[in-house]
Amino acid sequence: MTSHMRARSRHSRLRRAASAASLAVVAAGTLALAACNVSEVLSVKDPDIINPNDVQSAAGASAVRLGALGRLNAATSGGSSGSEGLFLLSGLFADEWINGDSFIARQEVDQRVITPQNNFLTDVDRLLNRARLSARQAAALLKQYNPTGPVADVAEMYFVQAYVEDLMGEHYCNGLILSSVVDGVEQYGSPITTQAAFEQALAHADSGLALLTGSSAADAKVRNALLVTRGRILLNLDRPKDAALAVAGVPTNFTYQMLHSQSTNDNQVWVYNNVARRYSVSTNEGTNGLNFATAKDPRIPVCTGGDAACKAIGVTSKTRDDLTQPLLVQMIWPARDNPVTIVGGVEARLIEAEAAYRVGNYPLFIQKLNQARTEGGVAGLPATLTDPGTDVARVNLLFRERAFWLFSTGHRVGDLRRLIKYYKRPAETVFPTGAWHKGGQYGTDVNFPVPQAEQNNPNLPAGQSCIDRNA
Amino acid sequence: MIADQFRLLGRSAVGAFVLLASSAGMAAAQTGSLNGRVTAQGSNQPIPEVRITVVGTNLAAATTAEGRYTIRNVPAGTHTLRVLRIGYAEQTRSVPVAAGQSVAADFSLQPVATQLEGVVTTATGQQRAVTVGNAIAQVNAAAVVATRAVANVGDLLTSRAPGVLVVPGTQTGAGTRIRIRGTSSLSLTNNPIYIVDGVRVEGATGSSTISVGGTLPARVNDLNPEEIENIEVVRGPSAATLYGTDAANGVIVITTKHGVVGRPQLTYFTEQGAHVDRNDYPTAYRAWRTGTTSTTNSTTANTVQCFLTQSAAGVCMQDSVTSYNLYNDPDATPNGVGYRQAHGLQLGGGSQALRYFLHGEWEGENGVLTVPQFDQRYLAAHGRALLPEEQRPNHLGRVTARANFNMALSPQADIAFNTGYISQKLRLPTSDDSGINGVAGNTYGGPGFKYNVNAAGDTLFGYRAFTPRDVYQRNSTQAIQRVITSANGNWRPTAWLAARGNFGVDYINQTDTQLCRFAACPDLGGDSRLGFKVDNRTNFFTYTADGSATATRRLSDALESKTTAGVQFTRILSDRNGATGISLSPGATTISGAGQLTADESTSESRTLGGFVEERVALNDRLFLTGAVRSDRNSAFGANFKTVFYPKLALSWVASDEPFFPKPSWLNQLRLRSAYGASGVQPGTIDAVQFFSAATTRTESGDSPGLVFSTLGNRDLKPERSSEFEAGVDGTFFSSRLTTELTYYHKSSRDALISRILPPSLGTGATARFENLGEVRNTGWEALVTAQLVQRAGFGWDVTLNGSTNNNTLVSLGGVPPLVGTTIQQREGYPLNGWWSRPLIGYEDKNKNGIIEYNKDVTLSEVIVGDTAAFLGYSSPRVEAALTNGFEFFQRRFRLGAMIDYKGGHKLYNNTERIRCASRNNCSGLVNPASSLFEQARTVAVRETPSRTVAGFIEPGDFIRFRELNLTFTAPGQWTARAFHGQSLTLTLAARNLGILWTKYKGVDPEAFGTTGNAPSEFQAFGPPTYYVARFSLGF
């Protein structure tokens, strides 16, 4: 065989082999696809998601419980990505915080002209309802899959529901909605009054308390949280005597806290005030506001951006995000991971004080306020309050004490509304009013509207946001 | 049940195919062969890459570099040969072939400006354009790249295809946004899909996992235009039906270069370019006042001012008004000159048995951002220096390589292997829409004078809070390693039967990082100066496997049938691991050196399996009727939905070829066409299912794993279905010197997937759920005119005009309430993503003090705002047009080209000016007594009226841009041979984006979008730079 013939032979073999490869490409794909099982080919498992079946166990129920506590954290002193929780937004609406950035939606809240499509309002509404739903799901799962587990875990889930429903009643207009998801299917709620929301909250608090018959530390902690919440709800229902009875056994040093950490669940007050500078502590906002920033009250230590105290906690900028001055910075929570007390024994004493005032027992009223000061754990706070002598002054004192003790913990809007509803003060004497600090005038809102997004609820009449916007 | 139907369809397809095949009766007969040479009329030069087909069979060949061709195994008998080549008029000739003989058939083709008889790539393979009922836009990429300043695929497509809206990126490495025939989907992607050499590839926009503002890369721009031979744009469902689910937004079909039979041809090319930012940026103003307290006295260290309305109200008195534009100050501007260079080598050639194309290229491009002079002085004075990557924070470095091989295994079989490799590293600065961290945010938000100082006493030179020396220290990178490989096999066992198979993978390894070293980057307070590192690594895989077979037969002398059946499988997978480290040790640049570590993982996968059958019948080679159906199943469909069917029907009629048609001398061809088809867009991979998500909760025992209910899912979820009708007329006139193309389209997206907002009261983690509810309609016209106005030996003048219109309407939301955003609303009867706000009804300086003021009393107020939000305009252009002129002179050795384009009929949200007026407090309308009443009115409306309306900042977006200018010199062959021993030499000088010739828009640039969403707005974004490029190419 000549070299030429050998080359031709090799070339021929190569062509045959390549031809076979070509056939393989054409045929293999076609036949493989034609012969395969369609369902198998299209079967995809996404490892990122947790199947609903996976929570149907004691461990799963426990994980959902932790999730509910995380949701509560986000709804209150935490927040979601890019937006804040209720405590900040509520304080912005009231006189605790003023706006320091350029977002129109935040400015609407600060100016008391909130539109239903306000995205921060919507975000907070979702955060609150997520906490509610998660707690409801966790309670059901714990009962079904861990019936012999700690009852405090289940009771705590009732506490979360009661606490959130009370917050919603305090902040929203008549016409708020509490929907749910049951067995994976949406159950749309209908508009209810704030009164109905408080009553639902009270029922959940009572359900939780009924479970707690033991005396373990966990039982005691959840019981106290439920009792203070129950007292708060009863105040909102204008039943101060019942409220005082509810909280009578709660020690003043009791705290139920939202915990924050360096890696997750940042303390959002610190984030938005100390770091992002979108919020600044308010002082005498809109004539009626309290002097939170300038009172030099040890319960609300405040520094001015760039001063020595602020630099000591890492706040070097003198200006807010919008470059206006001064930047007033709270120092209650000077770090990312500082915990926030959302329910505490001090509030129990304040409830007792209010009940005493309402029945005209002014010595007890003052005694309870001073007891809070003595046992509240704030150094340098003199317990030397005396009866100011007039009803107006007593009410002013009571609500000022509440405002300074409970700063930026979602109490102030509820208090201002109670001043209107039960203490008969005109709205324009309790909420910030007059010229707004960024131009224009304050609006007349005394509560949050139901968000526009709720229009997707078939039970909400088209175009309706609130039944009314009354306090 | 539906699964059975699906299988039935597949079996039916195979059955029909076999039946047709067996009935064809074309048993192997004795054969002969055809050969010949194709040359150009006039020059008699050989024409390579001419496609010669034997009509009524699958037999075909392409000419070599010498213009020669051979077709073997041609059945004995008389055949019609058809000869096609872009740029030349089609020819057909009847040729008798005798068994065992070789028949010569030479052709001489007439050059034309363009022609309708091209070849287009369809889902069933290459087809004559005249047989297809749609107008498929073509971009001759190789020609464009050789003569224009083209840096990426976005540049390649901009204003070159009617109905294709391209918004180019504004920074080096920035992405491109492409919309074809309007916006169809309310909630899903409106991006087209991309096919490269027969396989699906990733083309995502906003493709990054880290935040640098709105400017992010698009994966389509990874592709090197130098490697692309041709781009075809399949504009809508009527043409894209057989591409299946996902193709409703159009398909961009990219064919890379391949070798031409002939001796090796080596080409070296280089590009050297510079680009500058020639945009006019807004001037900042400051109104000074004198007072007795820190809150009433203006200083260089505070923000105390006296606004116009305050002045009018007597609250304060303006001492003076200063203005400063740092972009116009050489000392302060962050803009310098960006440089681009590229060097590449291409080698192509081969034999009939094996053709090859090899390409390798290195590119480097710096953006225009530099360290301002004052910052350089500051750094020098403080003994500091920025790292090289911080001195030029916007940079793209890329190496690309490609190896394409075409092997003719036998006259019956050939196979192609195409592999492209891309390695690129991109640095993007935190620029637009980055707030306090961004360069642009700091330039737009300046105080209106130069020597403002910060808390540390440093002069900011007109920047708002931080200067580039701080901002550039945030180092954001994206590294891409990408391989796109495909194998395409063709087998023609008989003259009437052809089978094709494609298999390919697009693999991307994407690493996104962001680094702030310890004690670097802007001091945002808290722990911001402790440093952080983000490192996210994602692998993307896109697999394509498809196969099809086509049977061609002549049913009679007049009637030809082509039946194609095929299956296709696509798998798209992304797999990400991310890690973040906060609080870095001094000197640390890795996550391992951080004090707090977090990690995350995510996976996404989608699979589609489809089958199709297509029947195309040709009557007398002038009437073509096509019917087809495609069926798909997809892993993302809901449990209650299995299979989707997409039908297609198309008609093409070359009326001018009919015997009864008048034959005036000026008419060469007239074609009428019409097509109907459907396609879809699939939902996301987990949109249909209900699930919980993991969430971390802080407890007394530390961070603990929890679970939260995430989403309800939707068991009935199915793909969004778009159906489209289009009709058009194409003409060729005056000896093919004028061609026209006119198309009307009507596209309707039913079962439109609406991201239905879930009521917050439900408490679900997801804020919305996809439901098939809505309907969106797009209608419009597209036109293309190409004319060779002058055609002489030494001089030529050609003109191309393309234009399109689009009317977009949200027909139905399916009972869902309007989706209301701050400035965007989705309402029935209005366009998708339209601009809405409470309108600025009027303004009048009633008290004649020269200042617009608001008053609660309507009779006194000088600005009037509507009570409710009103529709203000489209957010996307409704009309587009591009005019390209080309002049060839000096014996056509020089070619001068210019393109201007128009986009209009829409409005743009000048969000930059809004924030300057509303909160940066430095816009003219707020403080400048010389500002217009309108500027004042819109400022008062957004600041002082209870509506806080932004309507005054939603401005007409119409513009005419001088898009391209280029001059190319092609050296005579003798020169090249003498001087370089080469074959060809071309030199091109080109410029892109020479400026806005006319616009009503008051912002920086009507295409200054950092964002890639459906309604982008100019929000503290940079305008596009002007590129100047010199390109030198030498062939051996």
Question: Brief description of this entry?
Answer:
The complex is a heterodimer of chains A (471) and B (1036). Chain A is mainly α and 471 residues long.
Task: Summarize the topology.
The complex is a heterodimer of chains A (471) and B (1036).
Chain A: H1 3-35, H2 38-41, H3 58-75, E1 79-80, E2 83-84, H4 86-93, E3 97-99, H5 104-111, H6 119-145, H7 151-171, E4 180-182, E5 185-187, H8 194-211, H9 217-236, H10 240-247, E6 255-258, H11 268-275, E7 279-281, E8 302-304, H12 308-312, E9 328-330, E10 340-344, H13 345-358, H14 362-375, H15 391-405, H16 412-421
Antiparallel strand pairs in A: 1-2, 3-7, 4-5, 6-10, 8-9
Helix pairs in contact in A: 3-6, 3-7, 6-7, 7-8, 7-9, 7-16, 8-9, 9-10, 9-13, 10-13, 13-14, 13-15
Chain B: H1 2-24, E1 31-40, E2 51-54, E3 60-62, E4 68-75, E5 77-84, E6 91-97, E7 102-104, E8 107-109, E9 119-122, E10 125-128, E11 137-139, H2 141-147, H3 153-157, E12 164-167, E13 177-180, E14 193-196, E15 199-201, E16 228-234, H4 237-240, E17 251-256, E18 262-276, E19 284-288, H5 308-313, E20 320-324, E21 337-350, E22 354-366, H6 373-381, H7 388-391, E23 395-410, E24 413-427, H8 439-444, H9 468-471, E25 475-491, E26 497-516, E27 532-554, E28 559-584, E29 594-619, E30 623-634, E31 644-654, E32 667-681, E33 691-699, E34 702-711, E35 720-733, E36 738-757, E37 768-791, E38 796-805, E39 807-812, E40 819-820, E41 824-826, E42 834-837, E43 840-843, E44 863-865, E45 870-873, E46 879-889, E47 894-904, E48 907-909, H10 911-920, H11 924-927, H12 933-943, E49 954-956, E50 959-970, H13 973-980, E51 984-999, E52 1026-1035
Parallel strand pairs in B: 1-7, 1-8, 14-17
Antiparallel strand pairs in B: 1-4, 2-3, 2-5, 5-6, 9-10, 11-16, 12-13, 14-15, 16-17, 18-21, 18-52, 19-20, 21-22, 22-23, 23-24, 24-25, 25-26, 26-27, 27-28, 28-29, 29-30, 30-31, 31-32, 32-35, 33-34, 35-36, 36-37, 37-38, 37-39, 38-46, 40-41, 41-42, 42-45, 43-44, 46-47, 47-50, 48-49, 50-51, 51-52
